[in-house]
Amino acid sequence: MRLRPLRSRHVAVALLAASLLAGCATSVDPLERLGRKAAQGVRSPSPAAADQAYRRWGLRAPLPAPPKPPARPARRAGAAPSAGLPEVVDRIATSDPVVFLTYDDGAEKDPRFVDMVRELRLPVSMFLTDSVVGPGYGHFAHLMSVGADLQNHTLDHPSLRGLPYAGQRAEICGQRDKIRSRFGVTPRLFRPPYGRYDTTTLRAAADCGVSAVVLWRAATTDTGLRFSHGRHELRPGDILLVASDDDDLDGPPLRDRTTRLLRTVQEKGLTVGRLQDYL
């Protein structure tokens, strides 16, 4: 008369197997789970360890720690944004001796760059495009876990200026949702591809929860920095774009281009701040 208990055991085993299969179907990539944990707090090297790392990354001196961020976010110089629309910034109005490092697209996935960000305690902002990142979101989970900010750069990298509202909103909100679902954080900064935007872009960005549209005052080149306007020298508050070498696959890796920029930053008596602290 053990048929009933045996049948119960079979049922229990079947239920357990079904639950395990369901768990596998809905499990989160371990690297993306790492990124979610990063939102709860980042473990970085001690300041002493960061000081010892500067030579390893080609710097002549330790990177100074940025000053304490303002109690209230700084604003850009010039007119205030229109009511209900995000402000457009390429520099921050601050006297703090800081500049801000930003990176676009996500095409380059240099694993050593993750080590660089961690060891130098380097605050960087990555503006990601889903179609460019492709299956490489795990790399950016690693970056997030060592302190990088992940922000919005559209789903498919179109030039937004002139597109209808529905298309612009789909591009911006779609990538916002991708980042939120993968990492558990909602990006509130947005960079339009190629830096091109119009009033429709600002309306769509506002409706997707964007608080600031981030451009850049200078971008890296093979020979130094290319400034978009103003004096052709670094100033406190400048937002910098570390441009990718899409046309030169044999060019210097991301970490080397970052090192070259950091040397220029230090020569000007500046350091690197966290962009989100000022916007």
What does this entry look like structurally?
The structure is a single chain. The protein is of the alpha/beta class. The protein has a single domain, classed as Glycoside hydrolase/deacetylase (TIM Barrel). It has nine helices and ten strands. The strands form two sheets. Strands 2, 3, 4, 7, 8, 9 and 10 form a seven-stranded mixed sheet that branches. A three-stranded parallel sheet has the order 1-6-5, with no helix packed on it. Helix 4 links the parallel strand 2 and strand 3. It is globular, with a radius of gyration of 22 Å. The N and C termini lie far apart (73 Å).
Give a short synopsis of this structure.
With 279 residues, this protein is α/β, with parallel strands linked by helices.
